[in-house]
Amino acid sequence: MPLMHKESLADHDLAVQTFEALVAQTAGTERAGNYENALGFQYKHRDIILKFGRYTHRNEMLARSSTEEERPLLTQPGSRF
Fold first, then answer.
1. Which of 32, 59, 67, 76 could form a disulfide with 26 if both were Cys (CB 3.0 to 4.6 A apart)?
2. How would you write the pLDDT of the chain (81 residues) with one tens digit per residue?
3. Are 15 and 3 spatial neighbours (Cβ–Cβ below 8 Å)?
4. Domain annotation covers residue 17
5. Cα gap 22→70, rounded to integer Å
């Protein structure tokens, strides 16, 4: 989970690999659904980093200016995780 919250694409790629491995290792067990859910969230987090190179929802608290491309995302439900 710590990797999911970093602003590093390399860390997100590692998190995807890790969650994918956990999903495969637990297939058919009660835990599989938990890891599948986490993997889904990991993909969403990585998509933000892929597109913007950072978490846009952190801009305000880190005194970063949002770009024109980021602003519409910030108004969408669920964009702040």
1. 32
2. 888 899 999 999 999 999 999 999 999 998 999 999 999 999 999 999 999 999 999 998 999 999 999 998 888 887 776
3. yes
4. yes
5. 32
Element holding 3 (H helix, E strand): none
CA pair distance 19, 4, nearest whole angstrom = 10
Compute, in degrees rounded to 10, the torsion defined by CA atoms 19, 20, 22, 23: 120
Question: Which pLDDT belongs to residue 74?
Answer: 84
Angle made by CA atoms 7, 20, 34, in degrees to the nearest 5:
90
pTM (2 d.p.): 0.83
pLDDT value at position 80?
Answer: 73
- Indicate the number of domains in the chain: 1
Assigned domain for 59 exists: no
Q: Supply the range of the domain harboring residue 34.
A: 2-54
Cα Rg for the chain, rounded, in angstroms? 14
